[in-house]
Amino acid sequence: QVQLQESGPGLVKPSETLSLTCNVSGDSIIYYYWSWIRQSPGGGLEWLGYIHYSGSTKYNASLKSRVTLSLDTSKNQFSLKLKSVTAADTAVYFCARGGRRYGDYSFDFWGQGSLVSVSS
Amino acid sequence: SYVVTQPPSVSVAPGETARIPCGGSDIGSKSVHWYQQNPGQAPVLVIHYDNDRPSGIPERFSGSNFGNTATLTISRVEAGDEADYYCQVWDTPTNHYVFGSGTKVTVL
C-alpha cells in the first residue's frame, strides 16, 4: 500500500520560505508524477505543481514563480519550497500521487496533510 | 484558465439519490475525477475518468460526463456519505490541474 507523509515546520514568518517534504513508501518515486496541493482554512483545493523523476516540473501560474519542487530518488521523497510567503499562504498542504504518464490523471494517494501557518 | 463550477451544497434524505454537478465549458471532452473529503482528513478518490470506481469504493458511487456538465451520483445515500465532494480536471492548454470549489453534501 502506497503511503505519503508530509513533514516540515508548522509555522513560518511572513516573507520567509515555506519548506515541506513528502516521504513516499510502498512504491518507487520514479514511476509517477507527484504533486503538492493545498487547502486554505475553510476553502477548496488548489494544485500547486508537479514533479517527475525525469526532471519535468510544472507550477501553478498563480504562484508567480514563488514555488519550486525537487525530488530525491535516493530517499524516495520530494519537496516543496514556497518563498516570500504571506498570511494568504496559510493552509493545509497535501502531497499526492498522480499518474504514470504525463497529462490527464487523478490523484489516487494523498498524504494526511500538513498545516502551515504564516505569522510573525 | 479553465474553470469548473460546483454548487456549495446539496441536501438529500437517507436512502435517496444525491446528484452533484460539476460545470465547465465542453467538460464532456475532458476526463473528470471526483474526491470525497471528510473534515480534517485528506481527500479520497471516489471516481476517476468520468465513471470508473477505484478499488474499495462502493458501487453506490457513479459518474457521468456529457456536454457542459459532469455529475457524481450517490445512490441509496447513507449518513456516512456526508462530506465535501470535489471535481477535478486537467486543463490541456495550460497543463494545470483544476479543482472545483467543492460541494457539501448534507444527509437530512
Distance between the termini of chain B: 36 Å
Structural class of chain B: mainly beta
Q: What spatial form of chain B do the alpha-carbon principal axes imply? A: globular
Largest sheet of chain B: 6 strands, mixed
| Number of E-state strands of chain A | 11
Estimate the strand proportion of chain A: over 45%
The interface involving the most residues is between: A-B, 21 and 26 residues
Based on DSSP secondary structure assignment, what is the total number of beta strands of chain B?
A: 9
Tell me roughly what share of residues is in helical segments of chain B: under 10%
Count, helices of chain B: 0
Low-confidence regions of chain B: none
H-E string of chain A: EEEEEEEEEEE
Q: What portion of residues of chain B belong to β-strands?
A: over 45%
Please compute the radius of gyration of chain B using only Cα atoms. Answer: 13 Å
Give a quick summary of the entry.
Chain A has strands at 3-7, 11-12, 18-25, 33-39, 45-52, 57-59, 67-72, 77-82, 91-97, 109-110, 114-118.
Give a verbal description of the structure.
The complex is a heterodimer of chains A (120) and B (108). Chain A has 120 residues and is mainly β. Chain A contains no helices and eleven strands. In chain A, strands 2, 4, 5, 6, 9, 10 and 11 form a seven-stranded mixed β-sheet that branches. In chain A, strand 5 (45-52) and strand 6 (57-59) form a beta hairpin. The relative contact order of chain A is 0.32. With 108 residues, chain B is an all-beta fold. Chain B is built from no helices and nine strands. In chain B, the strands form two sheets. In chain B, strands 1, 3, 4, 7, 8 and 9 form a six-stranded mixed β-sheet that branches. A three-stranded antiparallel β-sheet of chain B has the order 2-6-5, with no helix packed on it. In chain B, a hairpin with a 2-residue loop joins strand 5 and strand 6 (69-74). The N and C termini of chain B lie far apart (36 Å). The A-B interface holds A 35, 37, 44-47, 50, 58, 60-61, 94, 103-108, 110-113 and B 1, 30-31, 33, 35, 41-45, 48-49, 54, 86, 88, 90, 92, 94-102.
